[in-house]
């Protein structure tokens, strides 16, 4: 991922994040780095400012940002981890590549999608090793 891709494109967020996306755009939270660094108190301020935003979605956006910045994943890879039930670097660091592949495969079967193409055991192992280094 090049430096420009680290700047956020909020249009890639799913439709159920529309209120959060609108708030973030209006308030110049325009990079993955800024979103990664959102504190819990800043999230609470957002919730008070815009009652249509939800804490859980803002925390998910922050988790996606952490994966993108700290692990250097693409946004789609970060979403994949999050939707597979991996919500933090610490939780990723506790897995082995086979378990992670099984977890991602279960998500794929449940959604009846073929979303995993270029992610093999070596890639998963790399993600886990990076996560272990950071934990």
Give the CA-based shape: globular
The overall pLDDT, averaged over residues, is: 88
Q: What structural class do the secondary elements suggest? A: mainly alpha
Counting H and I runs of at least 4 residues, what is the number of helices? Answer: 9
Strand content: under 5%
Radius of gyration: 15 Å
Element pattern in H and E: HHHHHHHHH
Intertermini distance? 23 Å
The overall number of domains is 2
Low-confidence stretches: 1-6
**What percent of residues adopt helix (DSSP H or I)?**
55-70%
Largest sheet features: none
Number of strands: 0
Characterization of the model:
By secondary structure, the protein is an all-alpha fold. It has two domains: 1-78; 84-135, no CATH class. The chain is built from nine helices and no strands. It is globular. The two termini are 23 Å apart.
Give a brief rundown of this model.
By secondary structure, the protein is mainly α.
Question: Which terms would index this structure?
Answer:
mainly alpha, single chain, globular, 135 residues, 9 helices, disordered N terminus
Write the layout of secondary structure elements.
Elements lengths: L2 H4 L11 H9 L5 H5 L3 H10 L5 H16 L4 H9 L5 H5 L3 H15 L9 H14 L1
Helix pairs in contact: 5-6, 8-9
